[in-house]
Structure formats: C-alpha cells, structure tokens
Backbone:
C-alpha cells in the first residue's frame, strides 16, 4: 500500500463514496467544487498516456445526478433546456445546455432517458445546486418531479481503447440481456453488478471510447476494486482530475468556468447546434423555452468572438486567462484570451483554447500568447487537437 498524500477535508467538503479507495492507492487529493477528489495517483503524464493507449479508471462521483420523472417530463425538459429532449429515444443520451433568459449558459449537461417518463440529468459538480434550483423553478404547471439523486449515486468511468475488454472481464458485472459491444456512442444499457442495478452509458470526457457506470454509492467501492483487478492485465490505471483535464483539452471539449459561463452563449462557444430553435408546441407554434428569444437573435448575428484552438510553436504553455496577441511584436494589440491551456502529452507540444476576434480566427493564422511577459508564438488550428482512431 502506498503512503496516502491526503489533505484534511474542510467541514463543508463532501467525500466521495470512493474516498477510502483513493487514500489506499496513495492519491494526491484536492478540493474541487466542494468535494475532496483525487488529483493524481502517480504522474499526470503516465495517467494521461494510459487512457490514450490502454485505459484509465476515474471517480466522477462529484458530478450532479438529477432525476426528472412524470407524464410531462419530456415536455418539461424541452421548455427548461435548449435541446429537444422529448425526441430522445429510451436508453439514449444527449449533450445539451441549460441557459438563462439572456442566453448565457448556466451549465452544460448530459441527459439520459431511462424510460418514456424518466430522465437523468447530469450536471457539473460546480453547478449542481444551481441547476437543481433552476430546474425546480421551471416546473410550474407541469406534471413532473425533479429529484436530487446525487447523495445516493456514485459514478465511475472506464475510458480508453481497452475499455470494452475490461468491462467484459470484470467479475460480477452482467450485461442483463444487452450487448455492450454493439452499444452506440451516447447510448446506455442496464446492467447489474453483484445483483444490483447499474446504469451504463457509452459516454465520456476524454476523447476515447469508454463507459460510465451509475450505481448505488454503497456498491461503488466493490465495483472500483473489481475494475482494478480485471483491468490490470489490460494496462488500466486509476486516473485523477489532472489527467481528465488534459485529456478533455486535447479532445477540444469545453469546461464550464473556462470555455462556458453565464456571459457566454452556446453560439459563442461554437455549440449553436445544440440549440433547437425548431422546437414547437402542440399547436405547431415555436416552443418558448427559456432563453429562446436571446438565442434566436444571437443565431442571426455576427459573432464578436470565436472559440479556436491554438497550437503552441514554442515550449511554454499558455494558461487560462493569458492574453492572446496579434503577433510577437512588443506593441501587438490584444485579440483574445486563453480559456484553457497545457502541454499536450499526446502531441508533444503545448495546446490551448481561446476566444479571439473573428478576423484572426482562421486556421493557419499565427498569433502569440503573453506567457508571463514573454510572447510565445502560436498558430490557430481547428478543434479538436486529437481524434481517436476508430
């Protein structure tokens, strides 16, 4: 057993149901969105590389799980969110957002449909309470119940090219009449582990193939250990928040608080496709979902800023908040701001995402980033930086 690199949890921090497992593995723990979570177990690069080449095991129990049930559940989500959730097939999943009336993003979400009248909304940990309150406020006049399932739910992910093999090899995990191998991306199936229900989705936040497992929190340690045992021959390692962030950055996936926030619309982030302005009510009239007027106007206007990828041409990485300059000249004007940045273990050079003015947003445009007073050259590239081999 490794020596635990444990920090003391403050009184208002929540511990994952897998906390003792992380301590036993010697994880470096960190405060994140009101939780104490593993930052890393060994090294950031080793964990990142394992996910790209074999598989990584993640504890995502800090995410918020919100149940939406009732005869009007689909209609309610159509009104409350920007997507068309009533059209989601049973055991399907959809990426969507919840916005304010002014079109600003409150959170980006994944919604799963368990049954015709039952949905699961998964929110970011930092926005869990806000999303729960916003959904509750939007239920007026509808036969629907919004319930926080987070306290009793754990979420474990196996991500990487060998994820399916590990799923198949895990003792006690049964596919319950469904075939995980034929499960499509952004779809789900019911499974069981040691006789208890597990909801399994082929989704993730790493750019790799993989599965996410929703289950009762009390059962989580046993499944975590079963995955570690089954995955060892396939190269599976536990991976922390640091590797999760560098993986999602390479995959060009937005992070709330960086690429998305209340001042940003889905269109600003290049995600206008998730806003379904063609939603209609029973009479065929445009459905007045929250934020519709602002988002419709935004969809018809020219952007003031564009989210782009930046390929570092030097060795120093840009970081969140660093200014983007028109060139490396000392008096070059500022043309944007970095939202996320880090060295890319997979590509071998720094990468970043940034909001820049439209006139410098074309791929191939050479710019610079002010890295603590030194202008580092970068090149605009299309997102994502990395795509897995399918």
Residues:
């Amino acid at each position: 057993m490794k020596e635990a690199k444990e920090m003391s949890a403050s009184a208002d921090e929540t511990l994952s149901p897998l906390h003792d497992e992380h301590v036993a593995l010697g994880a470096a723990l960190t405060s994140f969105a009101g939780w104490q979570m593993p930052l890393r177990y060994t090294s950031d690069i080793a964990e990142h590389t394992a996910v790209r080449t074999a598989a990584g095991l993640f504890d995502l129990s800090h995410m918020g799980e919100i149940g939406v049930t009732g005869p009007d559940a689909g209609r309610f989500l159509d009104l409350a969110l920007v997507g068309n959730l009533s059209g989601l097939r049973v055991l399907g999943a959809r990426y969507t957002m919840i916005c304010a009336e002014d079109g600003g993003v409150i959170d980006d979400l994944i919604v799963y449909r368990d049954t015709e009248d039952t949905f699961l909304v998964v929110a970011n940990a930092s926005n869990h309470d806000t999303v729960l309150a916003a959904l509750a406020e939007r239920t007026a006049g509808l036969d629907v119940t919004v319930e926080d399932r987070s306290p009793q739910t754990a979420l474990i992910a196996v991500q990487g090219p060998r994820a399916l093999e590990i799923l198949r090899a895990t003792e006690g995990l049964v596919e319950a009449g469904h075939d995980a191998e034929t499960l499509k991306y952004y779809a789900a199936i019911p499974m069981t582990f040691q006789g208890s229900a597990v909801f399994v989705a082929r989704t993730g936040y790493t750019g790799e193939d993989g599965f996410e497992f929703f289950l009762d929190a009390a059962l989580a340690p046993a499944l975590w250990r079963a995955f570690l045992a089954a995955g060892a021959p396939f190269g599976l390692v536990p991976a922390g928040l640091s590797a999760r962030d560098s993986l999602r950055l390479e995959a060009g996936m937005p992070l709330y608080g960086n690429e998305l926030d209340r001042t940003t619309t889905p269109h600003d982030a290049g995600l206008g496709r998730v806003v379904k302005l063609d939603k209609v009510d029973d009479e065929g009239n445009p459905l007045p979902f929250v934020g519709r007027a602002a988002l419709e106007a935004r969809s018809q206007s020219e952007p003031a800023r564009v989210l782009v990828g930046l390929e570092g041409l030097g060795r120093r990485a840009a970081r969140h908040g660093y200014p983007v300059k028109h060139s490396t000249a000392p008096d070059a004007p500022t043309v944007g701001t970095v939202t996320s940045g880090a060295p890319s273990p997979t590509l071998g050079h720094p990468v970043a995402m940034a909001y820049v003015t439209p006139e410098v947003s074309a791929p191939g445009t050479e710019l610079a980033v002010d890295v603590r007073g030194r202008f580092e050259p970068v090149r605009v590239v299309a997102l994502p930086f990395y795509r897995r081999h399918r």
Q: What stands out?
A: The first strand starts at residue 14 and ends at 15. The chain has eight helices and 21 strands. Helices lie at 19-24, 44-53, 73-80, 128-137, 163-169, 220-231, 241-250, 292-299.
